[in-house]
Design brief:
Mean pLDDT: 80
Largest sheet: 5 strands, antiparallel
Low-confidence stretches: none
Number of helices: 3
Number of strands: 8
Distance between the termini: 47 Å
Shape: elongated
């Protein structure tokens, strides 16, 4: 899913036990970059030496600026830091373009009705 985070559009995954849809998350599981903790299935482990953990309900952010390629955002911080973009909902740019198109259409009709 997409979200606005720190002024940028990013890919995020809300950590859950539901089947994963995001390709980048599937790839992370397949390459053992992330895996479910063997003792607590509500904890997501990150491979390597980082020792990072995340909980079900937290958010994993695809972040190529980070060494491991991901950032973790707790559920609590996500409420104020992430603005989820619903699939199929227009972005600000799409809204602006649609408004400009409507304005242009109205102006054309006015010109026609004024004989211009």
């Amino acid at each position: 899913m997409l979200a606005k985070y720190k002024g940028q559009i990013v890919e995020v995954w809300e950590i859950t036990h539901r089947p994963v849809q995001e390709v980048w998350v599937k790839e992370a599981f397949q390459s053992n970059v992330i895996s479910w903790n063997e003792w607590n299935k509500n904890v997501l482990d990150f491979g390597g030496e980082s020792g990072d953990l995340a909980l079900v309900g937290d958010f994993l952010i695809l972040d190529t600026r980070q060494e491991m390629g991901y950032s973790i955002l707790s559920k609590e911080k996500a409420q104020s830091a992430l603005e989820l973009i619903k699939e199929g909902s227009p972005t600000d740019l799409e809204k602006t373009l649609a408004e400009q198109k409507q304005i242009s259409s109205v102006l054309k009709r006015r010109r026609k009705s004024n004989g211009q």
